[in-house]
Request: fold
Amino acid sequence: MENQGALVDLFDERPSNSFFTKAILRIKKELYTVKINEYFKAIIEKIKDYKYDYFLLIKGEATPAFFLEFIKSNNPGIKFIFYTYDSFNNNSNGFGILKYFDYKYTFDSKDAVKYKMKFRPLFFAPDYGLLNQIDKKFDYDLAFIGTAHSDRYMICESARNWCEKNNFTMFTYYFSPSKTLFKFKKLTEKDFRTFDPAKISFRSLKHKEIVDIYKKSKVILDITHKGQNGLTMRTFETLGAGRKLITTNPEIKTYPFYDPQNIWVIERGNVQFDKKFFETDFKEINDQLRQTMSLEGWVNEIFTMKNPGYWDTVLEHKI
Reply:
């Protein structure tokens, strides 16, 4: 936004990004009301003398109504824009404040139809787009990076076994935000019982580290949350980087960039691969569509409220 000439003030809507705070907000936000209110009152003190043309809220997991009412009353004519990269089925915290917004966007096509919101998928950041311009010399045939949850480990290990049998190399990085959480999941969740503790990391990879792994990888494995409909950020990062994608999300077949040469869809309970998919090269996406998939394309669409038309085909399958 600043690169396009805007003056921007950015605030995290969560008082803290600790594991505890994130868990409380998702499970029982009411327990954190005092802390949330203090945090947003402090933001009001910082911005009360400024005037804004736009207010963009991402997800709305913690933002209280009194803050939104202040922004509106203090900035006559301001445009309120809401965007969520989570489905309301997974996290309904932002649903109660939708009435305040002039423009409402979701990455979930089913939610777009159900709640009469605008549909706008996620994007890839510029760093990933640059990888598409370099020589393709790969250390890994397949790579997975992600938080350890649900059946991700079992699917990844199935993929690793297949790669070993077919002379392909695979890189995996499993992350857990808490040792206590990981131990709890090992005790209580069936999918975690076989999880090798030696393979888990409690350090989140930095952005540059992830980009470097993409640079070395031909195919990226994307394992969504069970029941998730919207496409992950990983999807767009992969395709924007000119890397091939294996995903558990069959919804991707309704998107305009779907091409079986670039994208292989697997079933969670019946993981199967094809050697030919690994042996063929990435097929370039046309420039206009690729631009729309970028962060710049996302910003342009969100703030101009213009529909490029690419996402209409996705919604046609939901109506």
